[in-house]
Design brief:
Blueprint (H helix, E strand, L loop, with lengths): L6 E4 L5 E4 L5 E4 L6 E3 L5 E3 L4 E4 L2 H18 L16
Antiparallel strand pairs: 1-2, 3-6, 4-5
Length: about 90
Amino acid sequence: MALPKPKIDLLDDGTLHYKFPPGTHVVATGPITGEVTLDDGTVYNVTPHYVAVRDKAHQAEVMHRIGLRYAAEGHPHADTFIYTPPKKG
């Protein structure tokens, strides 16, 4: 899925703010590489810093799978990284 071009603003504190078009579902992946496979078999390459996904359900599941990978494989900021899986129901 192609990532639409965002509007990029510079905030007062000097950080960049990426604003994607309405209806776009994007996941900021962080420092992870490789792929995640969702329950429905969809595979997303999470190596880029931002990944466009099909819908909000995929967005939530990709974020969850990334969190699980960080918990299992480690995170570069392990001293501050805490992953709390979503509550069911």
